[in-house]
Amino acid sequence: MTAPSTYWSRRGFLTTSGGTALALGLTGTFTAGSAHALPAEAAAEDFAALRAKWRTLILGEGFSPAAEPFKSKLATLGTNAKANWDTMAPADGSLWPGMVYKDPEPDTDQESYGFSGQIQSSFGKLYTMAEAYAQPGTGLTGDAGLKDAVITGVEHLYTQVYNENQARYGNWYNWQIGAPQSLMDIAVLLFEHFTAEQIAKYCRAVDHFVPDSVMDNYTGTSTGANRVDLCRAMILRGVVGGSEQKITLGRDSLSPVFPFVTKGDGYYADGSFIQHTSIPYIGGYGAVLNDGLGRLFALLRGSAWQVTDPGAQQFLDTVEMAIAPFVYNGLMMDNVSSRGVSRGLVASDPFQLPQDDHNRSHGVMGSIVLLGKGASPEQQARWNAMVKGWMRRDYYGTALANPKLSLLRTSQLYELEADDSVKPAPEPVEHRVFPNMDRLTHRRRDWAASLSMASTRISHYETGNGEGLRMWHTGSGWLQWWGADHGLEQYSDHYWPTVDPYRLPGITVSKKPLTDGQGGDWAGPRPDFAWVGGVTDGEFGTTGQQLRGIFSTMTAKKAWFWLDDAIVCLGAGITSTDGAGVETVVDNRNLGASGEPRLLLDGVPQPATQGWNTKRKTGWAHVAGHAGYVFPGGTVLNVLREERTGAWKDVNRGSSPKEFTRRYLTLWQDHGADPADASYSYVMLPGASAARTAARALDRDWLEITANSPQQQGIRVPSLGFTGVNFWAAGTVGKVTASAPVCVQIREKRDGTATICVADPSRTVTGLTLTWKRPVKSVTAKPGAVTSVETGRELVLTFGDLSGSYGATHKIQVRTV
Q: Could you tell me which residue ranges the Polysaccharide lyase 8 N-terminal alpha-helical domain spans (predicted)?
């Protein structure tokens, strides 16, 4: 695979990129056939209007530079720009000392990536200076010396390296996206101060590195978010250089991004988003794509180049179907940000704050507000209410208090927060399955959870550019969860450099030692099992993962049943021949720098001493302020309190070596070395009190485990009318019989109706007979996949070919007798 961006290319996007349009008048929806007629020859004022609009889109407007938080942010911008100015020292091969871009052996190896990355970083520093010149209240506003320094710097980079005669080396991204974006933004901000010849040669440089041919095919590095970024470079080059052809080509080349895909990069009909062929990336490249499209829609709206492709409306719909499910109370869930979660603390960061799941979401929220200005009034109202709700409920990393959030994003969200006509929307109660990226989300009134899996379609993890070095096991059933009023800091407080990477919560894992970045850059290692996924009725869910451990022989069948106040977790067939120990991690809570919550085992308080551990038969456990855990029939539970020390550099070679220490409380079940057909079962109760946990443990009638074998795994919860079964092989579990390997869920309601949900996670089932030994009066609704129905003393459903339904849920509504 061609390697994607460098360490610097996207790491700051969600916290530092701008793009607000507080007074652009973006209204209405996209409609086909409403394109403005392109004039025979666009007038100079047309391009000037676009430059003015883009200036607003990168600087913002409508805020008071004398009011907080803008005053402080503008002052910081001025301080950073002054530091750049003071240290700029044009020399052969560099513009700043220590930022060498001249490659003595130009090629595409990792060393060359570092040199090409410095070209982009140098343009980025110049953009900071140009912004400080253009923004009010920076202390450098309109400073002629600063303006001249920017021009000198741009000329130096053009003359030395970024010109039409230079051959690329290192990372393609730096040449085709990173550098031209900053260069064209600078050209917009200082347009009247550059000569016509300077503008012409900078445009020639962009034409050289971003030729028209990059739009010829929607493949390789010209897909998804990368495609949008390339279109931005093309369109802005047209705006700066006065080229109708470039703007038109850039606009038209957005069209392949809009349709849903069925393989590879892009958005899927189920809300999944994939980049790099097999990586769930809504929190990274997906966010970049949405921000980029939002700004380009805003730029071109009302002009001769307005985006009128009807597919654009389908893209807008992804805000609620793809992005919103992974934002919870102001944080963007880590399991759709891939290696981006390792982009923590950078030594040069003046704030010494890591990029985390909260500040990653702040840029996303600003993008949604901007996109809403071009959506229907109904969509805009829903999105604004949704974003305001996220902002209000985020007690840990609030957007408006984020010192790293750009001035532009701050102005967007500040305006929304100040608008009393927008009422914050609550979190939804829902269960969402994303079968095309092996992810799901489960939301309740007081907590939320998300699961990460891997399959023949989706990689265990991604490493590249020195990032994501120890995320090997994030696809092994990693279960994240948060409470509405607790736990929002769980994965934010220096989690990735300090957590034991072999003990991520929820995973079943071989303790076989792995090396940093094992598998190599961009390898995206995938297991050879396809039966991964599940079903949902929209509120509850049943999920299964046929797991093969990464770089190990360990295999297992894992199942989760998602209910109103609990998650029932089963494991079976756990087998390994690595010679290493195998564990299932019930939970692993980050307690912060000094946390010591009370731990109860069967109601008995345990020591809070660091380093304390135990291994004992346990029926239930409770961690104060976190959750309760019930072990049906009891289990031998291992518990450890420990302090762990690490640096962000340990998980990302480009990050800070500064060390942090955090406390962890880990609960796990030890299956021993080389287990054969081991199993587990436990019930997680997020946010539960000790009393509720104890009561659930004593209630023998609440849960029936109907199967927990390598062939089938299932449960019944009579009080909820819930039945869930993963049929790894055809068979009968309780009252349900399936003739093929499928996932089945049944919910009976007190009104005499029931919902049956069926999915084919393996995508191999070409025919299915499903029998429910329960009297059924009639089938009131069924999908086309059901070819015949028999009712009466039992229900028999016959399905046709399910293999082409991409693991989607098929719902059948029935009336019971």
A: 54-388
What is the four-CA torsion angle of 291, 292, 294, 298, rounded to 10 degrees?
A: 140
Structure confidence by residue, pLDDT tens digits, 182-227? 999 999 999 999 999 999 999 999 999 999 999 999 999 999 889 9
Kindly give, in sequence order, each residue whose CB lies less than 8 Å from that of residue 564, ignoring residues fewer than 6 positions away.
Answer: 444, 540, 720
DSSP string covering 462-485, please? Answer: --BTTB-TT-GGGGEEEEEEEESS
CA separation for the pair 725, 705 (Å, rounded): 10
**Which DSSP category does 353 fall into?**
-
Name, in order, each residue with C-beta under 8 angstroms of 506's C-beta and a sequence gap of 6 or more. Answer: 451, 477, 478, 479, 569, 585, 587
Residue written as token pair 């600087």:
59
Please measure the distance between the N-terminal and C-terminal CA atoms of the chain and give it in whole angstroms. Answer: 57
pLDDT-derived band at 43 (thresholds 50, 70, 90) equals: confident
Pairing of strands 567-575, 678-686: antiparallel
Run of H or E including 544 = strand 541-548
Neighbours of 48 (CB within 10 A): 13
- Token output for 118: 């410095």
Tokens of 44: 């100079």
User: Which DSSP helix (H) or strand (E) runs through 680?
Assistant: strand 678-686
Sequence length of the chain is 817
Calculate mean pLDDT across residues 420-433: 97
State the Cα angle at 729 between 727 and 733, rounded to 5°. 50
Q: Which amino acid is at 396?
A: Y
Helix (H) / strand (E) containing 634: strand 627-647
**Which residues are CB-contacts of 128 (< 8 A; sequence separation ≥ 6)?**
77, 80, 81, 84
Active-site annotation holder among 127, 133, 162, 285: 285
Cβ contact 411:22 at 8 Å: yes
pLDDT at 773 over 60: yes
Query: CB of 665 within 8 A of CB of 651?
Result: no
Assess whether 276 carries a catalytic annotation: yes
CB environment 117-151: b (16+ within 10 A), e (fewer):
bbbbbbbbbbbbbbbbbbbebbebeebeebbebbb
User: Which residues, 6+ apart, have CB-to-CB distance to 85 below 8 Å?
Assistant: 129, 145, 146, 149
Please report, for residues 113, 590, 603, the alpha-carbon distance to residue 620 in angstroms, rounded to integers and kept in the order given: 52, 20, 8
Rounded to 5 degrees, φ, ψ at 403 are -70, -20
Q: Phi first, then psi: give them for residue 277, nearest 5 degrees.
A: 75, -40
The pLDDT value recorded for residue 588 is 98
Q: Which of 575, 549, 651 is nearest to 342 (CA)?
A: 651
For this structure, is 226 an active site residue? yes
Q: What are phi and psi of 708, to 5 degrees?
A: -155, 75
Residue type, 90: P
Mean pLDDT of all residues in 47-60: 93
- Rounded Cα–Cα distance for residues 761 and 675 (Å): 26
Per-residue pLDDT averaged across 79-97, rounded? 97
Integer angstrom CA distances of residue 193 from 144, 147, 163, 187, 264: 10, 8, 20, 9, 44
Residues 6+ apart with CB under 8 A from 149: 85, 88, 129
Active-site residue (options: 84, 171, 174, 226): 226
Q: Are 126 and 186 in contact (CB under 8 A)?
A: yes
For residues 760 and 491, what is the distance between their CA atoms, to the nearest angstrom? 32
Annotated catalytic residue within 156, 276, 622, 671: 276
